[in-house]
Amino acid sequence: SLPAIALGMDPKDKNIMREKPRDPNEGIFANGGLARTVLYGAIITLAVLLAYFTCGFINGATTLSEMKALFTNNEDVLHQAQTMAFTTLALSELFHMLGMSTGDRSALNVFKQKNVMMLIAFVAGFVLQLLVIEVGVVRSIFSTANLSGTQWFITALLSVIPVISHEIIVAVKKILNKSNKSVLAE
Hints:
Largest sheet: none
Oligomer: single chain
Number of helices: 9
């Protein structure tokens, strides 16, 4: 809920009046909204699945059947895999929020705009996730496992995939727009 509030409080783009008006009858999935939703949903899903299966891999399972056997026979490893997947989902949503707040610009604009609520939401979400994993009483309430340093590192790497994907998409769009403008100018 904090990311949603932060996105709602995001300052409007200074160049918003230079854009042509949108059709008031168009839906929220117009202008590529559905494609973006599906793409980022798939990216986050892939990151979560990678976190889950990576836990099996770092515990010696290299095939799906070995992972199934490992997770079936070792409840602690299964619990760690579930916690890695859950944490990757939570953190990747926080990183995704940074990219979505800027739309077609770099996520670094969040920091340039000094959107305090966005930073508060990010830090609060991250701290809450740490509490759920690292504080024993809270961990028992949420039935999560304590993660090792390696598991945290892997989870963190996988969690930044949405914002990295956003940056790549923004860069490719800029390159394509420049090449389209140069073709039109000729």
